[in-house]
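so i finally got all the pieces together for this one. its four components total, 1730 residues if u count the protein bits. some of the lines might not be protein, just check the labels. i wanna see the whole assembly predicted at once instead of chain by chain like last time, that was a mess tbh
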Amino acid sequence: MSQANRLSQGGQIDRSKQINFTFNGLRYTGYEGDTLASALLANGVDIVNRSFKYSRPRGIVASNAAEPNAIVQLGSTEATQVPNVRATQQALYEGLSARSTNGWPNVNNDAMGLVGKLGGPMMGPGFYYKTFMAPASMWMTYEKFIRKAAGLGRAPNENDPDIYDHYNRHCDLLIIGAGPAGLAAALTAANSGARVIICDEQESFGGSLLETADPLNGKPASEWVSQVVEQLAANNDVLMLPRTTANGYHDHNFVTLHERRTEHLADKAPIAHQARSRMHHIRAKQVILATGAQERPVVYANNDVPGNMICSAVSAYIRRYAVVPGQKLVVTTGNDSGYQAALDWQAAGREVVAIVDCRANPDGDLVKQARQKGIRIIAGSAVFEAKGSKRVTGARVAAVDLNAFTLKGDVEDLGCDTIASSGGFSPVVHLAAHTGARPVWNEEAIGFVPGKVKGVIPVGGVDAIYPLNEVLQSGHQAAVQAIESCGYTLTPLELPKATGRVEGKAAALFQVPHLKSTSRAPKQFVDLQNDVTAAGIELATREGFESIEHVKRYTALGFGTDQGKLGNINGMAITARLLGRTIPETGTTVFRPNYTGITFGAIAGRHAGALFDPERYTAMHQWHLQRGAKFEDVGQWKRPWYFPIGNETMHEAVARECRAVREQVGILDASTLGKIDIQGKDSRDFLARVYTNKWAQLGLNKCRYGLMCKDDGMVMDDGVTTCLGDNHFLMTTTTGGAAGILEWLELWHQTEWPELEVYFNSVTDHWATMTITGPNARDLLSEITDIDLAKDSFKFMECREGMVANVPARVYRISFTGELTYEINVQANYAMHVWKALFEHEETYGLTPYGTETMHVLRAEKGFIIVGQDTDGSVTPEDLGMQWCVGYDKPFSWIGKRALSRPDTRRKDRKQLVGLLPSDPKVVLEEGAQIVFDPKQQVPMKMKGHVTSSYYSPTLGQGFALALVMGGAERMGETVFMPMADGTVYEAKIVSPIFLDPKGERQNV
Amino acid sequence: MSNVAVFDQNAGIGVLAESPLAHVSGVKGGHTPGVVIHEKAFLGYLTLRGNSADSSFCSGVEQALGMPLPTEPLSLHQNQQKGSSIQWLSPDEWLIVVQGGTEYETEMALRTELSSHFAVVNISGGQTLLTLSGSAAQDVLHKSTVYDVHPRNFPVGKAVATNFAKATAIIRRPSEGTWELIVRRSFADYCYRWLIDASQEFGVDYE
Amino acid sequence: MQRYSGFGLAKHALTHNENWQRMWRNPVPKKKYDVIIVGGGGHGLATAYYLAKECGVTNVAVIEKGWLGGGNTARNTTIVRSNYLWDEAAALYEHSMKLWEGLSLDLNYNVMFSQRGVLNLGHTLQDMRDIQRRVNANRLNGIDGEVLDAQQVKEICPVLDCSPNTRYPVLGASWQPRGGVARHDAVAWGYARGADALGVDLIQQTEVVGMRIEDGQIIGVETTRGFIGAETVGCVAAGNSSVLAKMAGIKLPLESHPLQALVSEPIKPVLDTVVMSNHVHGYCSQSDKGDLVIGAGIDGYNGYGQRGSYPTIEHTLQAIVEMFPTFSRVRMNRQWGGIVDTCPDACPILSATPVKGLFFNCGWGTGGFKATPGSGNVFAWTLAKGVAHPIAAPFSIDRFVSGKLIDEHGAAGVAH
Amino acid sequence: MFHIYCPYCGEHREENEFRPKGQAHIMRPKDPESCSDEEWADYLFFRDNPKGIHHEMWVHATGCRKFFNMTRDTVSYEILEVYKMGEQPKITAASRVVGGEK
């Protein structure tokens, strides 16, 4: 089809650049500068979609972000599918492929339309609340069918090939909207030295000036726009962002802008590494809101039939895109600006049947102009019904009494294929309302204007200022105010002059009464996307929904992807009329981000895939990789889990690693443990306050295990702390607790005990830690160290400094396995060298790398807890049987102590840590298995505890577990039961949690 | 018992040190890369804690380092001769960066000069420094940090600890045209991958 | 009460829907009631309904400062599940679940309770231990649940990325088939209609501004429409509970935080179960309209602003894209925030107070919506008898003094 | 996202460098052992949670690591002042009423 509706001249399209595209599989052409919507209209495509609920045919209504109908599925490949693209905001590009989101078998003949027609009267708002209830089990079946009708477009089935970007910016002044007010503001601020950002959602700057008939300085307004854009571009302090929507306004002038960088070019970013879109995170000292105003359609019967549009859209298509979307036009309006559409239509050489104006005596300049041009004006009247089904065929007109809400006199049927309506203008207040400021009703302008927001100045249309000269002036003045508040001075500026004109007073025109009552008239749509009708709103108020929020929720008014940009005010006005209230009494609704939808990908930015979250590596990570380690995620760390050889299963590998430690020597990369350097004369005192146990007597180079509680008495962390000097300690924390514990220490120091002289510094990343453990550990280490390792010169729970593999090292003789152990700490840059030096003796001593799984088995055999696994925030030191680690008589009431004497923490039957030996030695109990004393009882059973850690021990030759059991400490030797999901009931005996070497002889050799 | 353990942690001869980015390979970004990233490995890093209201602390630090203690928040002082620097991190915390291998003598010098309540901690193994230069270096920072890196807010001589992607970093501006990033060892690989990813559209060289 | 049915719909269609009755009256407040419920959200309305229906107390007023169901009932992600770890919490939420299962019929109002199942994903070994512990406990408490491995998760939810190549691979999940979602607004409206029909006065646009207490006994509330008397007052005001408590001179262990949520634009059905991940930190379901309904974490600061901070939204969508990479090109339509009153142990307070006759039902944190029927039911019983319902008893405010907390944090992370 | 003035760094920084740490001025009882269970519970768990002016503690987590206090309106989210540890707020709910603001 050729572009039958395209004018041969005019518009801001480039006719030399023809663009091919497809819609619903048919090929069309448009021009560079077109949107998908303008190109479809140029090609005479009437039906672009089917409505959500009633499957009624729908056409293009608007030319901008307010469009409710022309929602399409975009994308020529599976991976590049984009659901719910507004055709009015999608620039045309070569090869663009779009489809309607609803309609089967196709959008012109939709089978669902029949359901809509027949079932329509039953499908009023809330109909599903009133049915499908019985029997209860059937709802899932009913719902399956309801869900089939859900949704507009579809998500792709393949992963997104595009990347997205974030860009953080700070500025003095952010101007949202590059129409006349925004441009005047930017021009004013440009040479002041202030950092200015100006953005606009459209493809190019100019806003209404791109479509206006009004000249500036006697020349087409677009010339002034080009001139300003040129000036701004030359200024280094001004950043211009076209194709950029301010989608969210957040606290303290933080604004998110979504810049579409390649969506106008292709499905997928055409250049490698190019971001499809970019979110700008703007922190602005001042924000000028120049978002303009949105024309409202008029609510009348069948106002959804393709060919019904808003007046400003008709003008925009003609003036900007040189597309006349029909042959014969009827305008229905309550204000002067509706006349412009008729004038433009006529100037394009097409027929204007009539302008129907609800005002009795319209008399503004545009009205006069229309009269002069011989256009018929039907005053005091309105279009109350559109004729036609797939395209408007006529308009029914009658005199109207809006106060009495009735039609008067005779009905006149006008033949036409397009009805343009204008009910007035609604300032685009959304952003100003995002942080909770309620819009304020302006009776004069018949619209809501922004409420007061600190640091935000509304200008032009959004402040209900419409005459062009005043719009320019308001932008200028706001910029002066904003810039001066930031401390900059301004250079004088001359604003362009528009030809002023007299505007007649606008009437408040929302819903037009019909010959029949609203409930019986053909559908009068308020929210086109959600199929909300005036009758639906009437039903909601009839049923007692009197708050506008209730009405919205009951009818779904404003919940579409257009967020009710066209329908909300009409809906409110109708509600107000039905309840006999004014619009401000009915209240406005809250606007939430986003102004227009933003893809998840854009919001996620670069934090996706491999960069979703940091992976933290130790200094030996590359070695682990080469050795084929399997890794466990511990916080953000990648820790070796086990090191399989050949086809070993985890069980086999862990058994081998365990045996190596018990029989020869194993090595663990323990670098991830948190390490905090503590210096200052009050260090010791501080430790005594934050740990449960005593620190006063710890001697030089001695190590001590400590437990840390919160002040509720529950265990939060543990670790070994070493005295390196009288005023110098090195604390270790759990891997997961590292950052939190440092902050915890700072919290107490800074807020409660600033008088204590102590400094805490993280050295977690500085020291690499390798733990060698097993009977051969001493021999192995002696190969490469000058430290005297003799049993009596370097005792258990001591620390030494010396050279290891020619690297200065601190070696701690502590043990988490129960075996003879040395923890070698070196400056991390040398860690790989030392690690490899140890492995030069691999074969001699049977040195075996092991991971966290083996570590867990070995420590559990010794009854050593893992905070977070054997504790869960409800476990005290006493519950763990660690009274030996509690300094009851310390002078300072350490953190956690007081809480231990509350009634519940004193209970004898608290859950206590015990060991479990399954009656069947082959059984490895499930971690998390629940423990009962009586396995024969009925569900719900009385649960008495659970298994916290459970493994197979190659050393014991059987499964074993740690568990928290009610009163467990007093139940040694008793049998407990674990009923499992498959019906098996496991049986185990309560034993001491120390399974191996209770006297600690192995680590003391 | 001595009060504090001071320990020369520099390795002897024949020890191969590995920086946190030893495993990554270079990247070439065409003829005119917008971003040039370079790792300055193996510098010495010391955390200094103390009371800047104590004039003897200030003078002691200046004596030991040959540059004054920065007491103005977020400022960076450099000793060009020694190739060292000290930056403000918090009212009682500073980061000293010295040539690799001199951290022990620097610590000893500080300990000689300082008395009363202070701390010096060697953290040389825990960080690495990346320099960023090129026409798009600032753009890459805008993509990576919430801090305002516009030159008007971030003049030469400023140093800020802040968020870097989902990690943290110290961002410094030692001279026109060069930015420095100090990142923690365990996050270095992530920061490197992030930087390359964010820089690629401008063309990036990494040596 | 006008009964609802499919036949009724057809009948009303013939008369152009002109004869539907009001769902509830708009009554003038009486001088005195037997019981006043402060707060007309889901929990308050459910309390009133069960008071009238099961406890025979019909001289009841619900006082609501805004519109019915306008608080967190209108602002949540509609998830219903009962797979809580601790016996006390499990009993409460399972009591609720059983009521959910018959609720539409009971109310003659379709609350669209859709038992499409809830997956709680595990991404670390500790996650899986916690899941096993919780599912085992659920089973022995008579609550449905299974532990699934990654392959089984994939079968239930094909759109979820269960490959081993993600940053935090899915290792498995807990699966509660009886869990699901419901239509949030309908829950409030259904209870309101039911309570009204039983004689309860629903008084909207009326704010409680003071409590009248004499000799340690509540005798009524001061409102913007004057004094209204009652010797039993139940406060069910979620985020505003601390403000009400202050009027009675009581302090509560609560903090009100913003909890944000968001929805995508409607897309064709692609996700027919509820997926939650504490580790990656996001959760998602798809509504009958096609919106992806997504929850975020609680913002850390106190806030009554019904909005939170942007980074929370960003992190949540990063998590969603990590879990569902094919959603990357779907658009986020709208975000909002509720005000959740959080307790130190992530469990609610259902309790008497030092003021005789004054009771509080609050502290539901992120778990409020799913508890609506059960909470209302046991609280009604408690108000009617003046002593705690056995299921409510462990949730007394005394537990913060004795130390007998029911800590759902440790077990389930964030208890949504 | 809040824009928070760090009283130590001397400039405004973005919220994600900070972490909120709950109500300010909660002091640990000097002699815990002499506290009743009620007093201890009050210290551990019971908070003001006001709607309006609130004094809360924040930490500049990824900046200078210092804790400080903030007076903030929990409805408008306006930050009215920040002050260092150990200092008292200038703006309080009472001062606002007395001062006739809002």
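Residues 412-416 of chain C have pLDDT under 50 and may be disordered.
The two ends of chain C are 35 Å apart (CA to CA).
anyway lmk what u think
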